Amino acid sequence: MAGGKNDIKKAVKTVTPGGVGLDSQAVRARMVRKLAAQGLSDARVLAAMGLVERHRFVDTALANQAYEDTSLPIGLGQTISKPNVVARMLELLRGGALEANGKLGRVLEIGTGCGYQAAVLSHLATEVYSMERLRSLHDKARENLRTLRLPNVHLLFGDGMAGFPKGAPYAAIIAAAGGQAIPPAWIEQLAPGGRLVAPIQTAGGAQALVVLDKTMQGVRQTVLEAVHFVPLKSGTS
Ligand code: SAH
């Protein structure tokens, strides 16, 4: 998209303060500028990051850190990813197939957590199906998202290892938790031409970001930089 900087400014200006006041817009705009300085360049992703009030997704005690480039605890040993990593993964997703309106089509997110990334995705995709295996986080995300009224976000409680066949095929799949390999169900539920972005375990217990493209010729997998995500676990709790 042309005129990235102006697009971001515009997006930030249109944020409804919702009682938080202009301060939070200003810190969010600063966060977006920092992301841009770090090399993130997709104007739509940056604009979406500028729209979503990250401080609403973390405990009040952590709200003052909400716009720093750091992951934060969200309870039960889970974390909300760093803004940089969220933006990076969404940029990678948008490197796959897009609809005519420039949005991603139906997206499956594994690991709703507090619902932050689902909220950002709601601005970039036609539909967002987001699965969480921990009931209390699923409930927390529902609570966090309630006031935002995002009709295209569908929160699902369940084990995301099996994906969500009812919503398939997906134009994109994004995981916020890393396992030893990409679960076969995700690849099955990805549309031809679709793209999946997920952390997976590499040698020595480290993790790397993987981009998987499903093409007519088969599956193409690209391993990118090292990342640190919580483990992908099976079952619900
Ligand atoms: N995108 C989230 C990040 C949450 S951390 C946010 O913006 O807050 C990753 C989440 O993945 C955790 O909440 C964890 O419980 C969840 N998770 C791990 N394995 C899962 C699985 N098999 N199915 C669904 N969720 C899973």
Give a description of the structure.
- This protein is of the alpha/beta class.
- The protein has a single domain, classed as 3-Layer(aba) Sandwich (Rossmann fold), CATH 3.40.50.
- Helix content is 30%, strand content 28%.
- It has seven helices and eleven strands.
- The chain has helices spanning 4-13, 22-37, 43-51, 83-94, 116-122, 135-146, 184-189, and strands at residues 72-75, 78-80, 104-110, 125-132, 153-157, 170-175, 177-178, 190-201, 207-215, 218-226, 230-231.
- The protein has a seven-stranded mixed β-sheet with strand order 5-4-3-6-8-9-10. A two-stranded antiparallel ribbon has the order 1-2.
- The longest helix has 16 residues, at 22-37.
- The protein is globular, with a radius of gyration of 17 Å.
- The termini are far apart.
- The model is unreliable at 11-21 (pLDDT under 50).
- Bound molecules: S-adenosyl-L-homocysteine.
- The site of S-adenosyl-L-homocysteine (SAH) has 25 residues, from strand 2, helix 5 and strand 4.
- S-adenosyl-L-homocysteine is lined by residues 74, 78-81, 110-111, 113-114, 116-117, 131-134, 137, 159-161, 176-177, 230, 232-234.
